[in-house]
Amino acid sequence: MPTSTQSIREIVMQHPSSAKVFLRFDIDQCLQADLSLEGACQALQLSVDQVLEKLADAEIQEGGFIALDPATLSLARLAQHIVRVHHHCVRQELPRLASMASTLAAKGGDRAAELAKVAELIAKLHAEMYAHIQKEEQVLFPFISQMDQESIIAYPPAHACFRSVSHPIFMMEQEHESADHIVADLIRMTNHFESPSWACETHLALFSGLRDFEADLKQHVHLENDVLFPRAIQLETELKARS
Ligand SMILES: [Fe+2]
Ligand SMILES: [Fe+2]
């Protein structure tokens, strides 16, 4: 992530997606190359926080992921990153993979029953994950973001519909486990997403897509279970102790 003390030159070299952000804010990459981001923002009367936020957004949009250090992100930004990258992947990939598996199963052949089962498992994963991310986006993440942003003002945040953040977190962790079981079944059914020698292009694309989705889901669940959720519980404990 770029920082306010880095020079414009350093940021452009390390983060290519920053060029269009600087252009939008009229920060001149040549004339202001040696200035720190903070200095360039001061000269143009810009908010350095706003520019840093746009730089992070551009990096996420461009790469689909960022080599982020979750410890340095606020809880609100981390939740936003999870939605933009990993929830987007759920919405984009699972319907596509389910459709490919159904097409393959409908073709018939020796492996049709197995592929029908694969299609069934992907559809189940899609239904569960879709409902899961809706709950996170509509209830839990806004709660965590509000708790994070209003941490100095009051706790619990307005409109809280549960007594402790640990309750919905527990439910989300249970749902992660359920998704994990479905993925384990898929791995077993597909021999670790290993395509048979006779596989057609759709078959190859399906298994490669499943392999990528499994990797993305691992990272998604890791960021929630091991970073976002423990930090949210910790923040709640601190806020309760203060109030
Ligand atoms: Fe999620
Ligand atoms: Fe989740």
Which terms summarize this structure?
243 residues, 8 helices, 0% strand, binds fe (ii) ion
Shape: flat
Distance between the termini: 34 Å
Mean pLDDT: 86
- Give the class from helix and strand content and strand pairing: mainly alpha
> Unreliable segments (pLDDT under 50, ≥5 consecutive)?
none
Helical content stands at over 70%
Instruction: List how many beta strands DSSP finds.
Output: 0
List bound small molecules. Answer: fe (ii) ion
**Sheet with most strands:** none
Q: Please work out how many helical segments DSSP would assign.
A: 8
Pattern of helices and strands: HHHHHHHH
Radius of gyration: 22 Å
Strand content: under 5%
Structure report:
The chain is 71% helix and 0% strand. The longest helix is centred in the last third of the chain and has 42 residues. The model has no long low-confidence stretch (mean pLDDT 86). With 243 residues, it is an all-alpha fold. It is built from 8 helices and no strands. The site of one fe (ii) ion (FE2) has 7 residues, from helix 5, helix 6 and helix 8.
Give the SSE layout.
Elements: H1 8-14, H2 18-24, H3 37-43, H4 48-63, H5 75-106, H6 112-149, H7 166-189, H8 201-242
Helix pairs in contact: 2-4, 5-6, 5-8, 6-7, 7-8
The structure holds fe (ii) ion (2 copies).
Concise structural overview:
The chain is built from eight helices and no strands. The protein has helices at residues 8-14, 18-24, 37-43, 48-63, 75-106, 112-149, 166-189, 201-242.
